[in-house]
Design goal:
By secondary structure, this protein is an all-alpha fold. The protein has 11 helices and 2 strands; from the N terminus they run ααααββααααααα. β1 and β2 form a beta hairpin.
Length: about 290
Amino acid sequence: MQELLQQVVSGLASGGIYASLALALVLIYNAMGLVNFAQGEMAMFATFLAFSLLSRGLNYWIAVPIALVLAFAGGVVIQRVVIRPVERAPVLTLVIVTLGLATLINGMAGFIYGYVPRSFPSPFSVQTVTFGGAIASYQDLGVIGASAAVLVLMYVLLQRTSFGLAMRAAAHNPETSRLLGIRVSWMLALGWGLASAVGAVSGIMAAPALLLEPNMMQTVIIYAFAAAVLGGIESPLGAVIGGLIVGVTVNLAGTYVPGVGGDLQLAVAFAIIIGVLILKPNGLLGRASVRRV
């Protein structure tokens, strides 16, 4: 029982990272109906920006907010320069564009920073605390707390502010929004910026455990996709719940299922994606779609 609780706590910490990136995926999907395959690479590059600021002697609590602002600005620029010219193109074209964007960002990071893994500092102590027979580090608790904080901030922003109302209106009913004076194009750009900043939180939380290098988010993005699909690709709350479930499930499978461990844990994520698409395509909290024939 103690080991089970230990694995659940560790899985929640990993799930918090997946949840943040899944939340970024959901924000883009709600804005454009598009799955952004470059989201993980955008998070990675923002983490390198934070690393650069820290290397110049800035305090962690100053460097990270600056990196998040830069990530936000980068997301806006990407939407205006790369996505906007093709936003009315077929979905396949947009998918290819985001895949190309992911390759470009990865190559830029490798060219600028190299591919040697680097340690990334964490503001949380590696010391542990015991509760209920389980041992958790302050690092794990910090990741869980940061994920909860991101969820609360996104809820308040999207549900309790006029900016959030305008963003949701622009995403779900752009034509009516234009008639009401909402600048839909800029709302979409700000949505990309917000998703980029939220994804950057995932990269910054993952870097102390994974080590910082250009390919570090390529596994995390798969778990994030699984989380978004499980929770419902249109539901921000579902993305967070899905991330926590995926984190715990993958951790338990790696511990108790023979032969599952290391890279084979990715198979668990793919199994979750396939299972959800077969049994409940809309996810746990997704809205059922109705099609007239």
